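Bumping my old thread because nobody answered last time. Still need a sequence for this structure:
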C-alpha cells in the first residue's frame, strides 16, 4: 500500500500547505481519497505537483468540517460529464456548525450539490467493504477533550456539537483519521474492536489545543503499543508532534510525503 499526503498544514517545496487534510491511499485494487482539504484550488495544484491524477475509486469524508470536505468542489466543478465517484459520509456531516460565531461546516452551496452525488451514508455501524472499513460513529469509552463547537438546528436553536459524525477508515490494518474529534485513543481502541489489528495510524490526532496533561496521556498510550508506525498530521499541532517525535515509530508527515507500507 502507498500513502501520499496531498493536503496538510505543513508542506515541503514546491507543494502548498493548507489548514486541512487530504490523503491518497493506493492499494493493489483501489485508489481512495480520504478527505479533500478546504478548497479545490489547493487540491488541484497539489495533485499536479505530486504527479497524481484524480481517477479515485471512492472518496471518504471523515466529518463535516470545511477543512476536510470543501475540496469536494474540485469534483463538482468538473461538470456532469465526469464519473460519479462514490462518496462515503456520515449523515450528520451536513449540519450547520459553528465555533465562536464562525461557520465551520461544509460550504452551504456545496451541501446542496452533494445531494445529487453518489453518496454512501455511513451512520452508527461500521461499513465493511472488500478493501476498506469505514468506522461509522466512534465509541467514546476513554477520556478526551471536546471543543466549544455548536450547531444551529432548523428551528434556529443552538445545540452542543460533539462531532458525532467523526469517522475513520481502516485499509490493510492502517487507521486513517481526519481529526479524531472522538479522541485518538477512542479511535484506535474502536479500530481494534472492529478490525482486531492495527499496525499503523495516520492523520490528525486533534492535539493542537490540547492540555499538556492530555498530550502526555496520548504519548504514554502510544509508547506502550507496538504499532509499526504513526504519522501525525494536520490538527495534531507542533507541540504534540514534537513530543510524539520521541517515539521510535514516529514518521514526520507533510504534503508530498509518500510512504510504502
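Sorry it took so long. Here it is:
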Amino acid at each position: 500500500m502507498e500513502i501520499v499526503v496531498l493536503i496538510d498544514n505543513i508542506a515541503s517545496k514546491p507543494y502548498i500547505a493548507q489548514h486541512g487534510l487530504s490523503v491518497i491511499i493506493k492499494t493493489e485494487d483501489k485508489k481512495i481519497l480520504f478527505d479533500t482539504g478546504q478548497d479545490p484550488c489547493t487540491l488541484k495544484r497539489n495533485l499536479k505537483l505530486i504527479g497524481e491524477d484524480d481517477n479515485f475509486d471512492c472518496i471518504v469524508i471523515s466529518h463535516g468540517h470545511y477543512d476536510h470536505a470543501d475540496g469536494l468542489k474540485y469534483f463538482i466543478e468538473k461538470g456532469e460529464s465526469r464519473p460519479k465517484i462514490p462518496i462515503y459520509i456520515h449523515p450528520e456531516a451536513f449540519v450547520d456548525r459553528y465555533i465562536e460565531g464562525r461557520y465551520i461546516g461544509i460550504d452551504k452551496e456545496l451541501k446542496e450539490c452533494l445531494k445529487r452525488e453518489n453518496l454512501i451514508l455511513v451512520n452508527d455501524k461500521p461499513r465493511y467493504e472488500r478493501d476498506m472499513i469505514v468506522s461509522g460513529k466512534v465509541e467514546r469509552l476513554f477520556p478526551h477533550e471536546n471543543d466549544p463547537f455548536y450547531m444551529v438546528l432548523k428551528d434556529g436553536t443552538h445545540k452542543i456539537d460533539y462531532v458525532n459524525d467523526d469517522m475513520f477508515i481502516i485499509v490493510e490494518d492502517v487507521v486513517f483519521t481526519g481529526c479524531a474529534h472522538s479522541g485518538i485513543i477512542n479511535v484506535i481502541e474502536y479500530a481494534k474492536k472492529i478490525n482486531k489489528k492495527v499496525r499503523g495510524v495516520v492523520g490528525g490526532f486533534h492535539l493542537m489545543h490540547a492540555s499538556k496533561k492530555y498530550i502526555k496521556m496520548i504519548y504514554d498510550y502510544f509508547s506502550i503499543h507496538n504499532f509499526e508506525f504513526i504519522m501525525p498530521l494536520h490538527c495534531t499541532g507542533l507541540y504534540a508532534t514534537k513530543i510524539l517525535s520521541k517515539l521510535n515509530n514516529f514518521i514526520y508527515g507533510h504534503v508530498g510525503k509518500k510512504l510504502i507500507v
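Residues 2-138+148-260 form a domain with the Metallo-beta-lactamase; Chain A fold (CATH 3.60.15.10). Let me know if any region looks off to you.
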